[in-house]
Amino acid sequence: MIVLSVVFLFIGFTYISNRQKKKSVSMLLSQLNKSGAENNLSFSSQELLNGSILGLDALKLKLLILQQRDEDTFEWNIIDLKLVRNCAVKKIYKPFYDGGSKGEKNENYLDKIVLHFEFTDNRESREVKFYSHIANNVYEMQELEHKARKWESMLLQMTGSKPRQIA
Questions:
Q1: 144 contact partners, CB below 8 Å, separation of at least 6
Q2: Closest to 84 (Cα-Cα) out of 164, 150, 144
């Protein structure tokens, strides 16, 4: 009886979690289409990430980045690819501290993987997060890095830029 109750609880939590995830994805896609229409963009490529979505208008060379801040609040930015000097995948590492070593650094861990944009008009650089050690499972890291590299390659091809290493 107890085992059966635990199984039903697990199934119930899984169902609710999946339903909330589908609702969140649906809201992101709906908001992307709305933001795209407001900015006269037509998306040829899209990428759904954790809490955000990318929409690429290849004809107008614009990349719309939509991030969900909370349940019903969204923030969007448009990157004009004609103004991109460089676009590169960047892995950001942070030190891992061992409490027993008097706060000394032992090693680094991968904090996040981002697509980093630098612009020709010297405005502040911009990053799109593909992987975060907080939001994503470590088993997703390789797949998300692959997605970031695919976008890097596609955007570099569109902008005519040559890939440059970003420190």
A1: 49, 113, 130, 131, 136
A2: 164
Neighbours of 61 (CB within 10 A): 16
> What pLDDT digit, counting tens, does each position of 11-64 carry?
544 544 445 555 667 888 888 889 889 999 999 999 999 889 999 999 999 999
Classify the phi-psi angles of 33: left when phi > 0, otherwise alpha if psi is within -120 to 50, otherwise beta. alpha
The answer to whether 43 and 57 have CB atoms below 8 angstroms apart is: yes
**Nearest to residue 90, comparing CAs of 108, 109, 113, 110?**
113
How far is Cα 136 from Cα 50, in angstroms, rounded to an integer? 8
Structure tokens belonging to residue 51 = 């809490």
CB 125 within 8 A of CB 118: yes
Q: Supply 94's token pair.
A: 């942070």
Please state, in angstroms and rounded to a whole number, the distance separating the CA atoms of residues 81 and 87: 10
Residue 46, Cβ neighbours under 10 Å: how many?
16
What letter represents residue 31's amino acid?
Answer: Q
Tell me the C-alpha distance between 13 and 6, whole Å.
11
pTM of the model: 0.78
Q: Are 55 and 63 in contact (CB under 8 A)?
A: yes
Strands laid side by side in the 126-132 sheet: 84-97, 105-119, 126-132
